[in-house]
Write a structure and sequence with these properties.
Elements: E1 12-14, E2 27-31, E3 38-43, H1 47-66, H2 69-85, H3 87-98, H4 102-127, E4 131-133, E5 141-149, E6 152-156, H5 164-175, E7 179-183, H6 189-201, E8 209-211, H7 216-224, E9 229-233, H8 236-249, E10 253-256, E11 261-265, H9 271-283, E12 293-299, H10 303-316, H11 336-350, E13 354-357, E14 372-375, H12 382-385, E15 392-398, H13 401-409, E16 413-414, E17 416-420, H14 424-431, E18 438-441, E19 458-459, E20 462-463, H15 468-474, E21 476-484, H16 500-514, H17 518-526
Parallel strand pairs: 6-7, 6-9, 7-8, 9-10, 11-12, 11-17, 12-15, 14-15, 17-18
Antiparallel strand pairs: 1-2, 2-3, 4-5, 5-21, 10-20, 13-14, 16-19
Active site: 256, 290
Family: Belongs to the aldehyde dehydrogenase family.
GO molecular function: oxidoreductase activity, acting on the aldehyde or oxo group of donors, NAD or NADP as acceptor
Length: 527
């Protein structure tokens, strides 16, 4: 089997070997992006330790998977309760390690995780219950579908939502009867350690949920340890490598990758609501969201008013250290994204676009980039065609909604999209034509926090789904059990020997069953 190579990401390292690439580092140092303060250190997990972690998880899963689903749900709700009880300390760490506003740490991380656990603990007994499939032809048999745990689920998680995203996948996997091993991003290693601490404090099996901090080689070692299922949330480039590694080992996987969410503002869009949606959808978590509003196609009837209002609202945003004050926009978690933002802006301005708000790093300590609005954009500019993952919202004027739809679909990515119109029926019809895994009408971002519905992308945004009934069943092996309803005796007509007489019967049966609609169709219409 070939070696898995994964993106390293960011993070400062200590220890022996080439710390510049992190591959021989023994520790990860975590710094607060808003202040530069050293927050703590985490030991890098070696390949041997990863292998042993997966082995321990596999042993723990045997007992856990044998429990009734209702009992697993009760125990996961103890974890939920522990999260709620310790919400303040979790929020505080999220604010410091991610530099995100306190409101977003509470609402977008802690509350989403608590709600997801509650929803799926209630839904799992019904969704995972065996059910019978009514067979259309072999009426002498009965078929049942069972959902069985896969075994050990590996979760490879990103740095932008380091609490709720790994726990989203872990909780669903656990409820389905699996054990979980999480490889967190090296950019935000302390949050995962806190989640593990909360899990252990709830009195749950320690080996059932494990954390293996590290850089790319740690993630590679996790896949090489042969888990039974892999879930990655990350970049398209990393997704290609991880999916290839899983394919080589025949490990089923879900890839939740990048996004370039378009927002179509129709001619009759409510300017005030649309503008506020663009500002929130573009600058929440400093734009470090896979479903951020990353490009706006505004109809010429509303374009000027919409851009002007977005600029006004953007200039009202308060940006700063969220650990010191209540702010609207915090820091950039991964400093490389500042370089990415600057390159996009330089490319757009060089090709004729204009910066209407923001557009540069904020002076002073910390990793801050001003919320930025760019007008006069087109598809010759990278800001309209490549993922930004930062606080930039580019606008493009369109003459018709058909033009907006064509441009929205002109992308290699297809995770989320948004349509704004006062005519909900019209907007819904337009949304159905947008090529994306999810499309919201007159709203932004909220589907990331609705566990009732499946979440995932098409095109290069990945495959498979998290959340929803589909996401829960994705964590299972589907088993079909077929049982006789009527005994056929020792001489089944479908078995040997093959004779000319039996062939004639079956030939007549073919015509009777299927010719001109046939007997099966008529029976189906009656039933």
């Amino acid at each position: 089997m070939g070696q898995v190579v994964m993106d390293r990401g960011a993070g400062n390292v200590t220890g022996s070997g080439p710390g510049a690439n992190g591959h021989a580092a023994t520790k990860i140092r975590s710094y607060a992006p808003a202040t530069g303060e050293l927050l703590g250190e985490v030991k890098v997990t070696s390949a041997d330790e990863v292998k042993r972690a997966v082995e321990r998880a596999r042993r723990a899963q045997e007992a856990w998977g044998a429990l009734p689903v209702e009992e697993r749900c009760e125990r996961v709700l103890r974890f939920r309760d522990a999260i709620v009880d310790r919400a303040d300390e979790i929020v505080d760490l999220l604010v410091r390690e991610c530099g995100k506003p306190r409101h977003e740490a509470l609402l977008h991380e802690v509350m989403v995780a608590a709600d997801l656990a509650t929803f799926f603990a209630k839904a799992a007994p019904r969704v995972l219950a065996p059910h019978e499939v009514k067979l259309h032809m072999f009426k002498h048999r009965r078929s049942f579908i069972h959902y069985k745990p896969r075994g050990v689920v590996a979760v490879i998680s990103p740095w932008n939502y380091p609490f709720q995203l790994p726990l989203r996948d872990a909780i669903i996997a656990l409820l389905a009867g699996n054990a979980v091993v999480i490889k967190p991003s090296e950019v935000t290693p302390l949050i995962a350690q806190k989640a593990k601490e909360v899990w252990d404090s709830a009195g749950l099996p320690e080996d059932l949920l494990q954390i293996v901090p590290g850089y790319g080689p740690t993630g590679a070692a996790l896949i090489e340890a042969q888990p039974d299922f892999v879930i990655l949330t990350g970049s398209v480039a990393t997704g290609r490598r991880v999916a290839a590694a899983c394919g080589e080992r025949l490990i089923p996987c879900v890839m939740e990758l990048g996004g370039k969410a378009p927002l179509i503002a129709c001619a009759d869009a409510d300017v005030e609501r649309t503008a506020r949606a663009i500002v929130f959808g573009g600058f929440s978590n400093a734009g470090q969201v896979c479903v951020s509003v990353e490009r706006v196609y505004a109809h010429r009837e509303v374009h000027d008013k919409l851009v002007d209002r977005v600029v006004e609202l953007t200039k009202e945003l308060r940006q700063g250290d969220p650990s010191a004050e209540f702010v609207d926009v915090g820091a950039i978690i991964f400093p490389h994204q500042i370089d990415v933002a600057e390159k996009h802006i330089a490319d757009a301005v060089g090709k004729g676009a204009s910066v209407r708000a923001g557009g540069k790093r904020r002076e002073g300590p910390g990793q801050f980039f001003e919320p930025t609005v760019i007008d006069g954009c087109n598809h010759q500019m990278t800001v309209m065609t490549e993922e930004i993952f930062g606080p930039i919202v580019p606008f493009m004027r369109v003459s018709t909604e058909e033009e907006a739809l064509r441009l929205a679909n002109d992308s290699h990515l297809g995770l989320n999209a948004y349509v704004f119109s006062r005519d909900r029926d019209h907007a819904t019809r337009l949304a159905e034509r947008v090529e994306a895994g999810s499309v919201l009408v007159n709203d932004v971002l909220t589907n990331g926090g609705t566990p009732d519905t499946p979440f995932g992308g098409i095109k290069a945004s990945g495959f498979g789904r998290a959340m929803g009934e589909e996401g829960l069943r994705e964590m299972c092996n589907i088993k079909h059990v077929s049982v006789e309803r009527v005994g056929m005796g020792s001489k089944d007509p479908l078995w040997y020997p093959y004779t000319a007489q039996s062939y004639g019967w079956f030939r007549k049966g073919l015509r009777a069953l299927f010719s001109g609609g046939g007997l099966l169709q008529r029976i189906g219409e009656i039933l």
